Amino acid sequence: MSSIIVEKVSLKNAPVSVKKAASVLALVQGDNLLLAIDKLRLVNKKTAKIVYKLLQSAVANIQNNKKMDPSKMKVLRIWATKAPQLRRYRFGARGRVKPYTKYRSNIFAEIGYGA
C-alpha cells in the first residue's frame, strides 16, 4: 500500500468526546475528499459539523498553498484522540457540590493520494 500524504490537518480541543467522534470519522475514512465533505453535510450530528470545517480547511490549504486539485485527493486516515478534560461543578443539595467532566478530543486527518 503506497500512499502519498499531501496535507496533514488537525483540530485541538474539539468539544466532543472521542467515542462520539469515532462514529462520524468512520463514515469518511478512505473516501474521496470532496465526497467526504458532501457526506458530512447530510449527517445530523455535532461532530459532523466540526469535521466538515476541518476538511474544508484542508481543501483550502491544498488549493492555495500546495496549488493542487482537491478532487483527486483522498482521506487516507482520520482519527481522534483524548484531549485534556474540563472539570466543572454543579451545586447540590445541602450546600454540596457535584463534579462532572466535559470530555474533549483532538481530531487529526491525513489527506493525499492513495492506492
Mean pLDDT, nearest integer?
94
Distance between the termini: 6 Å
The CATH architecture can be given as: Alpha-Beta Complex
Total of domains: 1
**What spatial order of strands do you see in the largest sheet?**
1-5-2
* Low-confidence residue ranges: none
Shape: elongated
Compute the number of strand runs. 5
Helix proportion range? 25-40%
CATH topology: Ribosomal Protein L22, Chain A
- SSE run: EHHHEEEE
Rg over alpha carbons: 17 Å
Strand content bin: 35-45%
User: What is the CATH C-level name?
Assistant: Alpha Beta
Main sheet makeup:
3 strands, antiparallel
Given the helix and strand composition, which structural class is it?
A: alpha+beta
Give a structural overview.
By secondary structure, the protein is of the alpha+beta class. It has a single domain (4-113), classed as Ribosomal protein L22/L17 (Ribosomal Protein L22, Chain A). It has three helices and five strands. The chain has helices at residues 18-28, 33-42, 46-64; strands at residues 4-14, 74-82, 86-91, 97-102, 105-113. The strands form two sheets. Strands 1-5-2 form a three-stranded antiparallel beta sheet, covered by helices on one side. Strand 3 and strand 4 form a beta hairpin. The radius of gyration is 17 Å and the shape is elongated. The model has no long low-confidence stretch (mean pLDDT 94).
